[in-house]
Amino acid sequence: MKIGVIGLGTMGQPIARRIARAGHEILAWNRTPGRAEALPRESAVVVRSAAEACQAELVLTLLSDDAAIESVMFEGGRLISAGMPGLVHACLSTISDRLARRLGAAHEAAGQSYVSAPLFGPPDAAAAGRLLLVAGGPRAAVERIRPVLEVLGRVQHIGEDAAAANVVKSAGNFLMAAVVESLRDAMHIVHAAGVDPREFAGVVTQSLFPTPVYQYLGGMLAARELQGGTPLTNPFLKGAEQSAATAAASAVAAPLAAHIATQEAARAPRSAGQETAKPPVPQ
Questions:
Q1: Distance (Å, rounded) from C-alpha 283 to C-alpha 279?
Q2: pTM over 0.70
Q3: N or C: fewer beta carbons within 10 Å in the chain?
Q4: 182 and 147 inside one domain
Q5: Nearest 5°: CA angle at 118, between 23 and 107?
Q6: What is the pLDDT of residues 133-151, one digit of tens each?
């Protein structure tokens, strides 16, 4: 299959390499052209524009956020893939359900299909084909591209509404944001009681929550606590913000999501001494 890949960042590079090595023809585009150099030359062609990458059967977008997707896919206010009937666009980025609906409507009007398939898993899982892809969109479109997506990992189709997959991704990241905030508060409490927060992190990760997420974040937050509580920006805040926005639009109560999303310290601009943890899974 001829596949356009737009975005060759932390996740885009290993994904494009894996798909190319599975025998698919890749049309790769990135704002920084040098990132495409690591792709297999025999099966990947670096194109000059995102629109050229859409001259394919399937286009995958792996860009950072709503603003990046909108600026690329709606350049000049027009869908750049228009004129390619039958194209399937699968957005693997973490975007809002609002943007997913806009993309779905634009592709439908162009005689194309849109699938949201946000990723769960880190870059090494992408390289090894161990991701979880939560897919939302027309079943026929999902089944058509399933063989490609399954090169990357397990595919779970959750329904015909593409935006629902983005709600699931945001909700997952909201849970991660809650982990950061609850661990941060717990570290403050045990440290104030004279307990080494590293000992507490060991208790939590060995018995209560023996998972990579708690192990990574527990160690990071314990170290920050011992250094005097140096602020650490919650790397999953966007998930809480998107979940709170979805809840408000749906008239559903989600007080914890709203509380985390609006915390003054977390929303303030980063100072010189403030650091953002590298999340153990992509945002």
A1: 7
A2: yes
A3: N
A4: no
A5: 80
A6: 999 999 999 999 999 999 9
